[in-house]
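Mods, move this if it's the wrong board.
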Amino acid sequence: MRQNSTAPRNNKLKPSSNLIMNGSVRVRVIRTLLAIQNGQSLSSVLDPLLNSLHDGDKGFAHALLLTTLRQWHALARLLDSLADNPIDEVEVRTTIQVGLVQLLYLEVADHAAIHETVEAAKEIEFAHSTGLVNAILRKVAKNPSKFRKKCDKKHSLPNWLAYQLKQDWSDQYDELTQGLRQPAPMFLRVNSAVTSVEDYQHALDGAEIDADIVELTTGFKVANSSKSAAATLSTKGLRLHQSTAVNALPDFALGTASVQDMHAQLAAPIINKALMAKLSAEESDTENTNNEIHILDACAAPGGKLAHWLELISANDESSLFHVKQDDAETSPAITDIKVTAIDNEAPRIERIRENLQRLNLSQHDLQQAEKSIALNIVCADATRWQHGKNKKAATNEPVFDAILLDSPCTATGVIRRHPDISILRTEEDIEQTALLQADILHNLWPQLKASGYLLYVTCSILKQENVEQMQDFITHHNDAVVIEFTDDCNWGIEQAIGRQCLPIDSASGDGFYYALLQKTAE
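Not the wrong board. Structure tokens:
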């Protein structure tokens, strides 16, 4: 899942520069917000902010930054209504919005919020604005509940995005736009090759960390050699009552658990189950003597879904590809080798994949030491052009993969709760550009999928142009693509013309994800 970092089209912003971390806590937060408005992502500036502060200030700075981002567009509208004349200076607007958050959402004492924010305006060399900053904040401090209600009344999204969500999700619009303003819960994926979800919940209890088990059920129609059947699977994760530092989680450093959204935890089990159905069908074909399978994780960084898939493959239970069985057979199919290829287009992101796999004991070295034969190859490549075996002179865009997991680039609108900077960084033009990128990747990877192989298309977007409409267009142009229908057994997401859409407002409280499963027919 890649989040394209696109700067907002705002000519009043200063050019991006190195983030300076000095001054008061509020000044550092203001500078961080200015950096985000200049196109830097929250993930790139959050650690520099927190690392520059004393431990006692980190909690306040984190809350101030994240809350300001979550309420950004609503605060901007409130500010416009409070000012007698338009405020064009981005630094001044940002400073006032930081002050408003303290008064309306963080319950900072009036005198402290106003005084420290006015001082912050001086520190960033906008002393000429102190009278305006003081006047607006004092006006709000006289009746904060009134202005809080005004701020909360509508959405806190850019108008173009709110309009698009109204078009796509009219029935869910109010709940959805309000839900995107809230913090997202923290979920854990338990490494099934190491322990069970239930046992890890007990370990969390011992560490005085409260968590609930969330179980998602998935059903989809598959075809084997004789009949169509329904494949079902259950995915369990843990939802923490309160977010917790990972170093406080039992055996986290040993790879027992990973932080992963609940809806994101559906990807690996779905494509793994589909691949198992393919292998089971092929086992009944006496002409099929292939004992090697090859799978691809495209756009794999930071590696959560790849790690999950490797965990399932490595597990000593029915989820492992080495344990696939025919309905009428007593022995497992003779799978002797599994090749796993993962690609992403940026070297730092490739390094992040390697780090995550190393913590989970899933590096190539770890896999070589295991009894099962799993070969892992991680490649830095552009998914719109990459072809397997491209370094060979005779390499062509030929079918080599039994299954492909495509965690497609998207606008990431489904994870705004976790990355509220997205509502600032994204523009309306990004949707069309991203959809074109997705189509290019699909068109490049599809020919590399074997006949009867499966491709699982995943995004963390809630915009239909990137999801169901993308799939409808793809099916129109690829006669060998068959949609695998999800059945009524699914207790997650909303059924679409193709696939299912999770919204960040359902009972599991997961992020917004879209899933579509395709199978390639023989030519």
